[in-house]
Amino acid sequence: TMKLQSPHFQALFTPGLRSVAELFEKKNYELRIAGGAVRDLLSGVTPQDIDFATTATPEEMKEMFMAAGVRLINNKGEKHGTITARLHEQNFEITTLRIDVVTDGRHAEVEFTTDWEKDAERRDLTVNSMFLGLDGMLYDFFNGYEDLKNKKIRFVGKASERIQEDYLRILRYFRFYGRIAENPGDHDPSTLQAIKDNAKGLAGISGERIWVELKKILLGKHVSHLVGLMYELDIAPYVGLPLDGNLEELDRVTKNTANLSPKPVTVLTSLFKQKDDVTTLDLRLKISKEEKNLGLFLLKHRQELTRALGTEPLRPYQDFLMDSREANTNSKICELLKYQGEEELLREMQQWTVPSFPVSGHDLRKMGVSSGKEIGTALQQLREEWKKSGYHMDKEELLSCLKKL
């Protein structure tokens, strides 16, 4: 046993949490911090959100909160035992300890329990199966803390049983491996075998859930190793990846984008060889329109839109942006520069203010150009001159150009 008293842990005790703790204590219901928040606290990280677990049933919690005049919000999680209470402008999500009675690889029917170990047993990975008392006492039934210190990712109990309860856990294994493990390739062979044996189960998981996990994998560590494993273990076809993904290009692009905070699609596009690959991904994962457009943009321009030789390497990108009639072109170009590993040019592009063309049709009318068609042609010619000057010519210079044209 160990007791945690870190500043991160102490910082959780807001007026809201103190009030919640008091209510549970009065009724003699046990309340502990659960899952991912415990893992974060033990790693010295402030958790983004905190889940609580309790021995109280949903009915007992509702009764207790209502008697205390506490507002309850969103009862969607109630059948799984989750009650959300709002105190002092803060939401508290508290779930009754439970056992999964029947699972079909996607959903579970649950039964409530007061046994903390039974609840820990149905969780996916040892590092996610710990509880932390509000006094800082750690409850760790499956050596999760040991695994966390050694940067090991293991399933609770038998890997194949955990996976068959929810096939998405295959991708969660990869996600946490990319977050916690120090080195690629440090897997237990029996775990990988269990993943391979059950890969087909991912076919029944919704695209939206898969995409949430896949995005996190693509932004973690060891990306090319983990995606390579997805191919080796026959996972790729069930999650929308192309059958013959370009793993060498992926390896190159993950190195290019290492410190540049790319979007997940930017990394993923490296696997693609043709437009159909983006379509297949979209059909399976229901990616957003913006994500799909970015994939198609990178696929189309990654080879021909590149730095210029000479003193103005950024010019091709600037010209492309100035000629573009589409929204978001600037951010797409920035993702392309990340893809290509052009760190310097990316910085320049992010600092570049898109200039506005200084001449209008009104200026040309004042100079005696009257027909709409002539104005259109003249404006187009002047835009070309302006572009050649690197967008430096001002209105005067451009209009004096007009006289020569």
UniProtKB/TrEMBL annotation:
The keyword RNA-binding applies. Its cofactor is Mg(2+). GO terms for molecular function: metal ion binding; nucleotide binding; nucleotidyltransferase activity; tRNA binding. Pfam families: PolyA_pol, PolyA_pol_RNAbd. The keyword tRNA processing applies. Residues 31-154 form the Poly A polymerase head domain. Keywords: Magnesium, Metal-binding, Nucleotide-binding, Nucleotidyltransferase, RNA-binding, Transferase, tRNA processing. Belongs to the tRNA nucleotidyltransferase/poly(A) polymerase family. This is TRNT1 nucleotidyltransferase. It comes from Ceyx cyanopectus.
